[in-house]
Amino acid sequence: MLKILHLLAVFLFTDLSHSQTSKCQNRDGTDNVDWTIVYKAPGQDNGKIILATAAGAWDNGAQALSRDNGHSFATALQNVVRDNGNIKFLAYNNAPPGVANVKTKSNSKGVIILATNADSTA
Q: Are 24 and 37 in contact (CB under 8 A)?
């Protein structure tokens, strides 16, 4: 449990990005959109994506989510893995670590990215 708390502290208090302000991206990661949601079922590589410009219309993901580029979340999350004092993130998971047999009807995981500079649009 102590290791998990240490890891969480590292993620929350370390400067994590060195690029432009994080923005949601379109299906292939080439243009900004207001918001986007990706759903990836177990055993599925590309997932499904829904964009602010087409709310209610799920589309197939452009590339496998394990690739470094070519899809919405690779471009948006590149700011999480680089060193920049103006970008912070919070990752969440509804299944607590180290707790066996959690009863849930769904699994929820995600990342919230925040830009802390005053002129940020994120």
A: no
- What is 59-98 written as a DSSP string? EE-SS-TTSSSSSHHHHHHTTTSS--TTEEEEEEESS-TT
CB distance 89 to 16 below 8 Å: yes
pLDDT tens for each residue of 29-43: 787 777 777 777 778
**Which amino acid does the sequence have at 43?**
G
110 neighbors 118 (Cβ within 8 angstroms): no
pTM of the complete model: 0.49
The CA-atom distances, in angstroms, between 116 and each of 12, 23, 89, 99 are: 13, 13, 10, 33
Strand partners, 112: 90
Is the CB of residue 25 less than 8 Å from the CB of residue 72? yes
